[in-house]
Specification:
With 580 residues, this protein is α/β, with parallel strands linked by helices. Helices cover 43% and strands 16% of the residues. Helix 16 packs across helix 17. The N and C termini lie far apart (76 Å).
Length: 580
């Protein structure tokens, strides 16, 4: 019989299950399947050697309010009381056991929208494994994993450290160091245990004996992180009941590892529908809006908007707050870029890696045949030499941002670029074709030099990785200060992309009358990283080209950064410096 002290945890779980089933608690299809799977296993799991231990489930739930204190915000110093959904997750993961009385689940996926309390819950899970696992495990090794060690040190590891210091039950047991949280060898419960952050860039991720892993933001793990992922999920072979947790928000179509892993967990949930039991060792709690739900089609003050959003935000309105979600939704209703971001991060659904910010219907009417400027800024995007390349010049007047481009291809280009449309642009002079199977960089360099003189180009931005040699040759011809490196990263592109899009939406952009540029603008998307920094990307697929638009955005960024430099120089020219 369940211990009396744990009855309130069982009551919370039963209330959550009842609410999900009668829909008084809004939940998406996959959360409903998680609830049904648990109930089905309570009835039939014994046939597969499974049993549920309510005392172990209650003990895990009790650890949070008994041993942990919130360390920041409005709840700082208060006991960590699990929400209904967190109680369900904890109850199920730690209550189910195999015939040998070890934990049933060795992998657990918790996926929900941002600002839903994942990080603090993940930190609590790590601290339990490191200090009070069941059964107690001396020498426990708990690793907090992410793509970058600095990332996990500044998030989950930092949160663990704060929670230890805020907890009377843990502060005397852990020694908090810069890269590890250590339990002393004299500890009566789990001596010589530790919690450590680790990333794919860490000095080593081999040779450890993992008891528990907390892998954060799985959607950000790319193909080149697969080796690190495999090491993290195969390091617990000598432990009787290792458990690896995944905490994440939805990704996009480029989040290959997340897509692959999520499919496995979804199949495990769907076994309750198909009757084909799959992956008994996988637990999944995936909170997302359903396929036909469109929260942005509703008034943000409406009950329907709130009902849909609670599917992806099971701890709403405690976190995130109602006003926060409403404000993000209003942004999503006003902009296709913000819509994509809202649906991914706040509705927790997979989206395209980017959206098309420059639709042809809006771009076309803006095009004009432009005059030659007296002063401008330039950029060239050479990329690989077997298909496309481009350069752009850009200038401003009192009312608008104006720009011209020149695009290049080669005669023996890839088949998907050998179209009548491309042939037409070549014939009309909008696209320069070089003979053979390579774009002629020497000819492009000469065109750039001529364009510099004709258009008063102040400086040319370039991608050092692909265009360093051409840039050096231009410097030799025109002078050392005529080129500037443009780092191909979201951090460097973010301001130009956002500012240019804002100007485009305001009607302040005037492109040259160039149908090849229009095509490349239509192909362009903006993708964002985990910090929501933007950079251009091929939104319609790798076979479409965006070189001219990349050059335009680099030229625009060049004009911004050069203007900032000039302001700094003007300041120091007009102010005396006092040496201290």
């Amino acid at each position: 019989m369940i211990a009396v002290s744990y009855k309130h945890h069982r009551d919370k779980v039963e209330a959550y299950i009842a609410g999900v089933l009668d829909e008084s608690i809004p939940a998406g299809r996959l959360v409903k399947l998680a609830v049904r799977r648990h109930l089905d296993d309570l009835e039939h799991g014994h046939k597969r050697g499974l049993h549920f231990n309510a005392d172990k489930a209650g003990d895990a739930c009790e650890f949070f309010p008994m041993c942990l204190r919130h360390s920041k915000g409005e709840w700082a110093g208060k006991p960590f009381e699990l929400s209904l959904s967190q109680t369900f997750i904890t109850w199920v993961v730690y209550g189910w056991q195999r015939a040998d009385n070890t934990r049933r689940y060795t992998r657990s996926l918790v996926e929900m929208a941002r600002k839903g309390g994942k990080s603090e819950y993940a930190s609590g899970v790590a601290l339990r494994h490191g200090s009070a696992d069941d059964p107690l495990e001396p020498g426990a090794e708990v690793f907090l994993g992410a793509t970058k060690e600095d990332q996990v040190r500044s998030t989950t590891f930092k949160q663990c450290t704060r929670m230890i210091k805020a907890s009377p039950a843990l502060a005397s047991r852990f020694k908090c160091q810069i890269k590890s949280l250590l339990v002393a060898d004299t500890d009566p419960w789990q001596p010589n245990s530790f919690i450590k952050p680790i990333g794919s860039d860490s000095d080593t991720s081999d040779g450890f004996d993992l008891s528990a892993g907390i892998l954060d933001e799985l959607h950000a793990w790319k193909r080149h992180h697969r080796g690190f992922y495999e090491r993290m999920t195969t390091a617990g072979g000598s432990r009787r009941q290792e458990l690896v947790w995944f905490f994440t928000t939805a990704g996009d179509e480029k989040s290959e590892l997340w897509i692959e892993i999520r499919k496995q967990f979804v199949r495990a949930l769907e076994s309750v529908e198909t009757g084909h039991v799959s992956a008994d060792h996988l637990f999944a709690f995936i909170a997302c809006v359903d396929e036909n739900d469109d929260p942005l089609a509703h008034d943000v003050e409406s009950d329907e908007f709130e009902r849909i959003m609670r599917k992806a935000n099971p701890n709403y309105p405690v976190t995130p707050k109602k006003k926060y979600l409403q404000d993000r939704a209003l942004e999503g209703q006003a902009s296709p870029l913000e819509r994509n971001k809202f649906m991914r991060f706040h509705a927790n659904v997979k989206v395209s890696a980017g959206v098309q910010p420059f639709p042809a219907a809006d771009w076309g009417p803006m095009m004009q045949t432009l005059e030659t400027p007296k002063e401008s800024y330039g950029a060239f995007d050479l990329g690989r030499s077997d298909d496309f390349a481009a350069w752009a010049i850009l200038w401003r007047d009192e009312e608008s941002i104006k720009f011209k481009v020149r695009s290049y291809t080669c005669a023996e280009r890839p088949e998907h670029l050998d179209t009548t449309e491309v042939a037409g642009w070549i014939k009309e002079g909008y696209l320069v074709e070089h003979p053979g199977n390579q774009v002629d960089f020497r000819a492009i360099r000469q065109d750039i030099i001529e364009a510099t003189h004709a258009n008063g180009v102040v400086s040319w931005a370039f991608d050092e990785y692909f265009a360093k040699v051409v840039a050096q040759e231009i410097q030799e011809e025109l002078g050392e200060n005529t080129t500037t490196k443009f780092v191909q990263s979201p951090r460097h592109y973010n301001e130009p992309c956002r500012s240019f899009l804002k100007a485009f939406k305001a009607g302040d952009v005037v492109p040259d009358n160039d149908p090849c540029l229009l095509w490349q603008a239509r192909n362009t998307t903006f993708r964002s990283n985990a910090r929501d920094e933007w950079m251009p990307d091929k939104g319609l697929g790798g076979e479409y080209k965006i070189d001219a638009m990349v050059a335009v955005l680099m030229a625009y960024g060049n004009s911004i950064f050069e203007a900032d430099k000039k302001i700094d120089l003007d300041y120091y020219d007009s102010h005396e410096l006092e040496l201290m």
